[in-house]
Amino acid sequence: MHVNSKTPGGDLWLKGEKSVPVELRSTAVWGQYWLEMLQEHEEITQIWIGLVSGGPTFRWIAGTTADPMPARLSGEGLRRVIKERGEFVYKDHQELVSGGLFPIISHGQVLGVVGLLSRDTDYFKPDVVGWLRTLFRAMGDGLLEAGQGLASLTWEYSIARTLISHLDVEAALPEVLEMLAGMLDADVVSALRYTPLSRRFELLATHGLTVQEVAKLKFRFDAGLAGQALGEQPIWIEDLADRDGSQHPIYGMDEDGYRGYLAVPLVANHTLMGALEIAWREPRYTQTWNDDLLMRVAGQIAHAMQHTRIIGEFRQSNERLTARYIAMMEGLSRALELRDLETDGHTRRVSELTVRLAGHMEIPPGQWESIRQGALLHDIGKLGIPDAILLKPGSLTPREQKIMQQHVHYGYNILAPVINDRHILDITLYHHEHWDGMGYPYGLKGEQIPLMARLFAIVDVFDALTSDRPYRTAWPRSKAIEYLKDQSGRHFDPQVVRSFLEVVEGQASNNMPVKS
Hints:
Hypothetical protein af1432, 6-stranded antiparallel β-sheet, 18 helices, 17% strand, disordered N terminus, disordered C terminus
């Protein structure tokens, strides 16, 4: 197999054949495989892989750098890992890094270690440590068999790399199941997800079944062999034709000509995540697979499923909290219209028109809701401006103008702790920047100003000019349009001005929410 000399994360350091003893050359290839896989994680910034011996001493094999490991890893960490045969993890808030040293163990012996550094001080959370622990156990067995089991190592590496490259395990499973079918020479491999509340399995992905066979999969998995895989050992049926009458694998499988069967539990951190169901069209009287390898791969899939579930639960919780927070902020924005004496419906109109402009400029629809929310919340920071300034009928003094300009910072500081959406924050913070660099708060110029803020700035000014205010009557639409043209290249992005005018001029046929 061809091995690249570069990794996704940067240059790859690997001892050349002249510096690696003959007996360790396969070990160097082993180190390179695992280094490339670890570098798929952007949160991991530095990696060291090496062998250990008494003393303890560290013999470098592969890594992202030839520099020595930090003292905390090579000193205290190395001693503890060899003595206790467990991982060593630390945080350094002063240097804003976290580090971990993990043993590579096979048959109870520490053969090597992997040192990792991350710029995320909270990277080594329990679920990440659990996944890494499983991964490095696989590395230990692979190291012991280096040079003898490269085929198995390649399967394992390829499956791990596929899983690690997807945030959602369902996106990775079709490719993973295809590789498993090749590794096991199986006709069918299916992944089932276990739901604890109902104590049932549901089909997550499958490889090798026909459309007709998949259509039969609407049944209770808990009554089948997969349900019996609640333990931690595989269930192997040599010939489904001779099975016990109480054992029911995939519905109708024996009727469709399948004979050999294997169910493998998917367990992560002592939690059943699901099961693999594997089938052959011929009886399987002789075991042709490596149990240890299969269970390691199953462990990787299980941890990926757990990781996906945790991320999904977190996203749902965050979305609910964000929705409630935005609803509250939108209510405050409507109240702010009354306090600021703005025309009723200003925030609603500018949000609708900004979304229409975004669509006209072919901004992806997936970003429209962020634009709408940013428009609704753009002046939320005015809650922090004193009434004496916010409601002053005449011109503001230079000092008062400085205070008024702080509302963009106030708005950003209100939203940023709870809203992880760049477009909303950009509109809030930058909608008073000018194309020529004469705006505030930072005097950004041209395309330094985020696009969403450039869109919203035009809509905000247009609606303000064409609306009645206590201190003036609304401008005619034609006069407001001439003002936008005059400010093109000064206050506003010329391209956005052109697009906006196309939208405004087409309002009659497109039901545009623009004042006439």
